Amino acid sequence: MPGQLQGIGQSTALGTAGLRARLRGGAPRVVLLLADSVTGRLWPPVVAEREDQAAPWQRLFERARRAGLDWQHLRGVTSDGAQGLSAFLRQALAWVQHQRCVWHIWRNLAGDLAQAAAQAAAAAVGEVAEAQRAQARTALVALAHAVLDAQSYAAAAAAVGALLAHPQGTAIGRFLNDHLDQILVHLVAYDAGLQRVTPAWYWRDCRLRLSRGRNHGSDLRLERAALVWAIYHDFEPAQWRSERKRHYRYPGQSPRQVAGAPPGQISYLAALGV
């Protein structure tokens, strides 16, 4: 509905994530999500065939704007580095900074780390080779951490220099150096509140309700289910008790309540009929 989220508090920082799904018959799809990085409130998602083009991301942001998102108020967006999102931001939201998700950066580095460790032990065999691989990997991971977790741009640049000087760190150092500006966006005061990781944890609850999209025979049915789930998420309070690997930033509160618009006694099912 146009304006359905109008007037509800929003921050200057957003996070994006994509859920891979397959329709009945095997057709691949991706559910694109836009979340407020501070309150956790979700904007209406969309379903697309692919995410490497600007058009699906434009549709996602346009839908959010119709729902009440103020584009001019935005300052930063966190993503996994999708090329389509980068292209859309350059075309339509040039003032919005693009933060790369550090979790996805580590996943991209996995192959380079394994290859560098193997090169370090190329001349050895047996236990000696295993020890050299472990030693090289530990050193490279520590240097990469120094870049990704740096508290200033100068510290990150120094860590990149140390990586480039390492015998097996050239490829990793070049990769991090190429993306350094997007890795450190969260350090800029202009982008206060911007998260370093994408809101991919929301998909756990989505999978429980949507069964990964396998029971939907069309894009429209999958998108309707995703929209209902987004409303459910905004109305459902987080549990009070933290889990071993899961902690809640606002225990006992729903995203709407955090955003300053508590739903009161209205459930998400009632909201669908308002």
Q: Note the main sheet.
A: 5 strands, mixed
Number of separate structural domains = 2
Helix content estimate: 40-55%
What is the strand content?
A: 5-15%
**Uncertain ranges:** none
CA-to-CA gap between the ends? 11 Å
Radius of gyration (CA) equals 21 Å
What is the overall number of helices? 11
Write the layout of secondary structure elements.
Layout lengths: L12 E10 L5 E9 L5 E7 L5 H14 L8 E4 L3 H10 L4 E4 L1 H19 L5 H23 L4 H13 L4 H9 L1 H4 L18 H9 L8 H17 L19 H4 L9 H5 L2
Parallel strand pairs: 1-4, 4-5
Antiparallel strand pairs: 1-2, 2-3
Descriptive report:
The protein is α/β, with parallel strands linked by helices. The chain is 46% helix and 12% strand. The chain has helices at 54-67, 83-92, 102-120, 126-148, 153-165, 170-178, 180-183, 202-210, 219-235, 255-258, 268-272, and strands at residues 13-22, 28-36, 42-48, 76-79, 97-100. A five-stranded mixed beta sheet has the order 3-2-1-4-5, sandwiched between helices. α2 (83-92) links the parallel β4 (76-79) and β5. α1 (54-67) packs across α2, α5 (153-165) packs antiparallel against α6 and α8 (202-210) crosses α9. It starts with 12 loop residues before the first strand and ends with a helix. The relative contact order is 0.16.
